[in-house]
Amino acid sequence: MERVDLEVGYGETLALVGESGAGKSTTLLEVMALAAPRHGRIEVLGRDVSALSRAEARRMRAVVQYVPQDPMSSLDPRLPVGDIVAEPLLVQRWPADRVAARVAEVLGLVGLRPRDASAYPHRFSGGQRQRIALARALAVEPELLLLDEPVSALDVSVRAGILDLLRRLREDPGPACLFVSHDLGAVRHIADRVAVLHSGRVVETGGVREVFERPGHPYTRALLAAVPVPDPAAVAVPTESSVPRGGPLAVGEGAAGCRFRTCCPAFTRLEGGQRVRCEREVPGVPDISVGRGRWIACHFPAGLVERR
Ligand code: SF4
Question: Is residue 283 part of a domain?
Fold first, then answer.
């Protein structure tokens, strides 16, 4: 990752969207690792992770929980569900008398029955396994929940149930959530804010509704136009020809100016003077501010500010 500037507050869900290879999962894994990234800085709960002692990192890991795309990868097939959910509690040395009660509580929270605690993972459907993975992550009352494509492997009816569950957890109020998805319908359903990634960089962030209804960066517009619109009545997405292919210029290669100009669908339609600006000035992040918490890494964000 070259540059990702993101913040997610307590009780808030921030979605990372973009095509495969945009850097979404890498970002999540870097946060989960609680290790200094190759570039930039990661702060979790107000602490720079590169400055954490071993003991501090261990304590931090207890409050940062990860739910993978494939729930089976996090569920030990040799253990009954109750033991799987209890495991992180035991690692954190919860008193034995509280563990059983907490396991029953979180199983109920995700819509499973108390008797499911004695069954093994292979007895459950894909959606139920995702509920078990969520119960395990929620058991320790995390402050930051990392969700990696939590519904992508599920069929439509099961997906709706999991999205409703995630939405309810958010209303509790729940932990801060960083949610990676290429499913814009899911993002619209559960996220408060969205960050659009392209080639390892954030190109636009803002409230989900603002970004989906008035995308400013050419890449965001192309991305939204290229996927099925989840709610056509509510979203009028301007069209772009296609999602831009190829990546931005590498560091040092045409270093001046906007590095996206070689794959920007809007660049060729700009007037001469505007193109010169794209070629000479790096669109600073977040120098084009169009509202609180909203920014676009482009000199000419469509329809939001007067072209300069
Ligand atoms: S600054 Fe110019 S080249 Fe870069 S994304 Fe915006 S319009 Fe395209």
Answer: yes
Report the domain count for the chain. Answer: 1
Confidence of residue 118 (pLDDT cuts 50, 70, 90): very high
pTM score, whole prediction: 0.82
Q: What percent of the chain has pLDDT over 90?
A: 28
- Burial class of residue 70 in the structure, from the number of CB atoms within 10 Å of its CB (0-12 exposed, 13-18 middle, 19+ buried): middle
Average pLDDT, the chain: 81
CA–centroid distance, 203 to ligand 1, in Å, is: 10
HEC profile of 228-288: CCCCCCCCCCCCCCCCCCCCCCCCCCCCCCCCCHHHCCCHHHCCHHHHHHHHHCCCCCCCC
Ligand 1 centroid to Cα of residue 190, in Å, is 30
Q: Which domain holds residue 295?
A: 192-308
288 in a structural domain: yes
Does residue 98 form part of some domain? Answer: no
Q: Ligand 1 pocket: which of 270, 300, 304, 308 to mutate (most atoms <8 Å of CB)?
A: 300
In a domain, 230, yes or no: yes
**Chain segment 10-20, per-residue pLDDT in tens:** 788 999 998 77
Q: What angle do CA 211, 215, 218 make, to 5 degrees?
A: 140
Name the residue of 196, 223, 264 to mutate for ligand 1: max ligand atoms within 8 A of Cβ. 264
Question: What mean pLDDT do residues 112-117 have?
Answer: 93
Average pLDDT over residues 209-219: 90
- Does residue 266's CB lie within 6 angstroms of at least one atom of ligand 1? yes
Atom of ligand 1 minimally distant from the CA of 275: 2
Q: How confident is the model at residue 5 (pLDDT cuts 50, 70, 90)?
A: low
